[in-house]
Structures
1.
Amino acid sequence: MSEASRTLYTTTLIPHLSHNNTSPLRRTSVSPTIFKRNSVLRCSVSTLTKKIPWGCDTDSMENASALQRWLTESGLPEQRMGLEKVEVGERGLVSLKNIRNGEKLLFVPPSLVISPDSEWSNPEAGEVLKRNSVPDWPLLATYLISEASCMKSSRWSNYISALPRQPYSLLYWTRAELDTYLVASQIRERAIERINGVTGTYNDLRSRIFSKYPNLFPEEVFNMETFKWSFGILFSRLVRLPSLNERVALVPWADMLNHSCEVETFLDYDKSSQAVVFTTDRPYQPGEQVFISYGKKSNGELLLSYGFVPKEGTNPSDSADLSVSLNKSDVCYKEKLEVLRKHGLSASERFPIQITGWPVELMAYAYLVVSPPTMARQFEEMAVAASNNTSNKDLIYPEIEKEALQFMLDNCESSILKYTKFLQGSGSIDLDVTSPSQINRKLFLKQLAVDLCTSEQRILFRTQYILRRRLRDMKSGELRGLSIFNGFFRFFE
Ligand SMILES: C[S@@+](CC[C@H](N)C(=O)[O-])C[C@H]1O[C@@H](n2cnc3c(N)ncnc32)[C@H](O)[C@@H]1O
């Protein structure tokens, strides 16, 4: 949600644990030091699994009010905002008084923040994860499940009860839904990568840790479904706090704030007030919903992590990924792939295009794809520029500029065609449902996909227009040059 969280979400999305072990659960003997007396029975007992409150309906105000009461009793100072049903984001924080521009709000004390150092209601489980050096994200995902399973005996029970039972992120879309609704958008690939990342992380934890301590981590509680839930919560609520060395944290109350593309204010830890705050960048009148920014994210990235798409044309950070590939029939295919790999790239790459233009990395990749064998000595510098690892970014090769622009135009046009096909056919998508709730879900997902594809296609149309105009200008420049040359030729004749 904070500006700093952007890098986390947009790069290596899931912390890396090795993803290669997908073998079925092995039940090994329990470590004697861990399996002490009734160590776990306090919390994660399988018969209670069904009673565990994995959050509530996304618009439940009952649990939200209980959360607010508990936070106040636990040290949250008096607030200038209240938690209410809102038009944007279902539940959100609404101004109770006049709020000035530049005012600090929230003041959530560290004791009400969940971080990788938070105490576990079941300390043995926490110790096992820490002994195994589990990184922050899977650690927090396991922590949330563990605390949820402790129900009322967890100090976070009011917080967990107010979390959405099914976060809106793309983690909850089935493969068939992704294939049907996001067929045109590159976000589909990113969603699949993310789902695979979560699955791999869970499988790794299961084989390395959970299966060795089944009493601490019973599969009835710590399974793929509950991990999908906890990762969904992390993707849509976790923040990085720049003033605390980018520490990741869940900040109850602050995470009830919804996102607006029109504000540029982020959550952070404020050393002077020793609390998590944000500073408004506009005034609010009583009754108005107060917003923060979840970071400079494209509509696709907002859909991926948070499950919503801003209104068309309202997101200045919006972009559409263009996918480009080396040509397999290129005589230099092997050499080009080698230099790309050397600089961390592959035979197919995605580059984000904005309404204002394309990145220099894409142009460098295009140069490499179209460059002839005679330019082999420049392959390396093109790959370096494409990989974003150089200060000398603005490469220009006038002799192949036209081919590079044409290559980008061809890719852009074939991508536009996919969007057009999806958008034209979206009215006739077979919803194939058997219940009213299913039809609601399908219509909801379809609307999100149509909104996303419309905004991405708009960016590609603009890119197509600019590319066509440049190519036309280059051609007319060439023609002008040619006619001047012909004029000289006649003169000398
Ligand atoms: C950090 S939570 C914000 C609180 C949330 N509304 C709640 O009731 O729990 C993020 C979630 O809020 C919703 N949300 C935030 N900003 C939104 C927006 N501009 N439009 C639609 N939904 C939004 C999305 O469901 C997102 O996954």
2.
Amino acid sequence: MNLTELNDHFGLSGVLTFEDHNGLTRLQVKTPACTATVYLHGAHLTHWQPTGAQPVLFLSDRSDFAPDKAIRGGIPVCFPWFGPRAGGKPGPSHGFARIQPWEVAFAALSGENVHLTLTLGPTALSRSLGFDGFRVAYEMVLGKKLTLRLTVANYGEGMLKYEEALHTYFSIGEVRRTTIAGLESALFVDKTDGLKEKETPPEALILSGQTDRVFPENVSSTTIGDGPRTITINKSNSATTVVWNPWTEGSVTLKDLRPDAWPGFVCVETANTGEDAITLAPNDAHTMQAEITLGKA
Ligand SMILES: O=P(O)(O)OC[C@H]1O[C@@H](O)[C@H](O)[C@@H](O)[C@@H]1O
């Protein structure tokens, strides 16, 4: 659908409008409860700000907005693999979903919440990478809180094994003064240190260097302490949590991130990766959910 058709079919007067940005289609949401921006490219939520609060998501001002590139910041949807593809097989980092155009299936205002569903089915790119029999529905409920539901269905004849992540970049005042509660004494794989297995200290986590930690079999809720506010992530059907910040060392390798931007965000990701990957029998489906709420410290 072109912009006119999208606005005719799914636009909500004064609440939800589709527009072009750099050749990509995005939609802007404005309600008494929040403002939000979603790109159909990657089903990428780049902005969510409850009324009266600071923006919750970080977006790199050097991000590419191009059909073959992932947006840096917001919430990239990683599917059907996380990080580099296993087994040395070809394919983009974190899967193809974040660089494919998604379709709008549903948009409505219910009370003060906008309910939006975007879908992704097989594309030329996914087929070229061997993924044919799947469908993904991504439901967002945008209001004072944010609910994200990623449902994957197997329409193929064989088993479908996949990894997934909502790679959320939270905007924070200063990462070295930010706490992450909920991962106390938790086991993690340290991707910055040869995949060694380690355990976090018994108190809330405060990052002090380049961080790339995968917490397997971890269903805990996490709460980010960002100065006077807290950001809580409650999740269901997600067995992996990932915490990432590139720090100075990692940032210099990322062309789409200002080298001094890293103190302003932390990624706390709701995921199913590695041993927690999902395997679906034909006609089966699985839903992973994250719910993000703001509070006072
Ligand atoms: O640069 P990308 O592909 O968006 O990935 C960013 C980071 O994403 C994190 O989730 C991974 O654990 C890191 O290993 C990776 O570097």
